[in-house]
Amino acid sequence: MTLLSEILEYNNKFVAGKEYEQFETSKVPSMKAVLLTCMDTRLQELSTRALGMKNGDVKVVKNAGAVISHPYGSTMKSLLVGIYALGAEEIIIMGHKDCGMGSIDVDVVLEAMKSRGIRQEVIDTLNYSGIDVNHFLSGFSDVYESVKSNIQTVINHPLFDTNVPVHGLVIDPHTGAVELVYDGYKKEFYK
Fold first, then answer.
1. Per the domain annotation, does 16 fall within a domain?
2. Which of 90, 151, 158, 179 could connect to 33 by a Cys-Cys bridge, CB 3.0–4.6 Å?
3. Are residues 86 and 66 in the same domain?
């Protein structure tokens, strides 16, 4: 049985058993916040549970490294939509220790792409077209600096309401312990 078959079979039972009822909530976050965090599997539930949040409390945006890679990309758009269209009044940007994007080896990723059929000519064409593939695939060296950079991207964005508090946190994926990097109420960095 394939993964997709397993998922669909499980979903049929889930719906038939009305297990979805325990997750019913409004599309407006009850804590009135948007959380940007990493897609790391260790944070699937830990990222919200360690903050005392349950289903429906917060809008969650996840990507590799919890990074805003472009001020007009989908991550920034999600934060803005959360504020202007979905009732959020605060933003929490939470990176984590031991993040794969903090130690990603771009050469290894490029070799994996090539082994799956991506031709060097495609990579060269992208580079020639102005897309620095190495930069696009790269991560960061310091999670605290990454969180700070993301905060600066948000608060300096021309479409962002600077009255909205933006907080910065770093979570330990092994214990759930959270460190404060930036307090959006006081507009003060701690790390």
1. no
2. 90
3. yes
Q: What average pLDDT score do residues 36-45 get? A: 97
- Are residues 168 and 91 located together in one domain of the fold? yes
CA–CA distance, 155 with 188 (Å, rounded to integer)? 13
What pLDDT is recorded for position 191? 78
Cα distance between residue 115 and residue 180, in whole Å: 41
Q: How far apart are CA 10 and CA 150, in angstroms?
A: 38
Q: How far is CA 189 from CA 21, 46, 67, 97, 141, in A?
A: 41, 24, 18, 18, 19
Find out whether 104 and 143 touch, Cβ atoms under 8 Å: no
Residue 49 lies in a domain: yes
Give the domain extent around 133: 105-138
8 Å CB contact between 153 and 71: yes
Q: How far is CA 132 from the centre of its chain?
A: 22
pLDDT-based confidence at residue 84 (cuts at 50, 70, 90): very high
